[in-house]
Specification:
Number of strands: 2
Distance between the termini: 23 Å
Structural class: mainly alpha
CATH architecture of the largest domain: Orthogonal Bundle
Helix content: 55-70%
Strand order of the largest sheet: 1-2
Strand content: 5-15%
Length: 182
C-alpha cells in the first residue's frame, strides 16, 4: 500500500481541490506529521503518479507574485475508487507501523459508522491471528531452549504493541461520533 497516495487522495477529498502545498497544510492540520514519516517530497511524487494514473486531474494553474506557478488538483472518480481501496487496506490497522486504522479514520469522509465497525472487527481478527501465530510459534519450541527465551522476550513486546493497537481500535469505535469531526 502506498500511504503517500492515500493521504494525498484523502486530503484532496477533504479539500475538494488543492495544490501540493495545500495538501501538506491539510496534513499538518490533521497532525499527520506527528506520527507518520511521510516526507513533503513524497506528497509531490504521489501527486505526479496519481495524475499519470488518472486518479487526479489538474484543474487550474495559478500564479501569485514572484512565486512559481501553483497547480491545483482535484480527485477523479478513479481516484475516489483508489482511495476507497487504500482506505480499506489501511482499516486493517496494521500497515504501516500500526497507524493504518488511524490514518483511515483521519481521512474518512464517506464511510459510515457501521462500515468502520466492520473494518474494526476485521482488524481485530487480524490482530488475534497474530497473537495465535506467536503463541503457536512459542508452543513449538523447547521451553528450556535459548531460542524459546529470546523469542518469548521479543514476542512479549510484539504482543504489547498488537494489544495496544487492538485496545485503541476498540476505543476508536466507541468514540466514532467525535472522531468523524476530525
Amino acid at each position: 500500500m502506498n500511504i503517500a497516495k492515500m493521504v494525498v487522495l484523502g486530503a484532496l477529498e477533504s479539500l475538494g481541490r488543492g495544490s501540493g502545498y495545500d495538501i501538506i497544510q491539510e496534513l499538518n492540520r490533521k497532525k499527520i506529521d506527528r506520527w507518520t514519516d511521510i516526507k513533503q517530497g513524497s506528497i509531490y511524487h504521489a501527486l505526479r503518479q496519481l495524475k499519470s494514473e488518472g486518479a487526479v486531474n489538474e484543474v487550474e494553474q495559478t500564479k501569485v507574485g514572484r512565486y512559481p506557478d501553483k497547480t491545483i488538483y482535484k480527485i477523479t472518480a478513479k481516484g475516489k475508487e483508489l482511495f476507497d481501496n487504500l482506505q480499506e487496506q489501511a482499516f486493517l490497522g496494521l500497515y504501516p507501523h500500526f497507524y493504518g486504522f488511524k490514518i483511515a479514520l483521519k481521512f474518512n469522509s464517506r464511510r459510515s459508522a457501521k462500515e468502520i465497525k466492520i473494518f474494526a472487527e476485521r482488524a481485530i481478527e487480524v490482530i488475534d491471528k497474530q497473537f495465535k501465530a506467536m503463541d503457536d510459534h512459542l508452543d513449538s519450541l523447547d521451553k528450556s531452549s535459548m531460542l524459546y527465551k529470546t523469542d518469548s522476550f521479543f514476542i512479549k513486546h510484539e504482543k504489547m504493541l498488537f494489544g495496544a493497537e487492538k485496545e485503541w481500535i476498540q476505543d476508536a469505535v466507541k468514540n466514532l461520533s467525535i472522531l468523524r469531526r476530525t
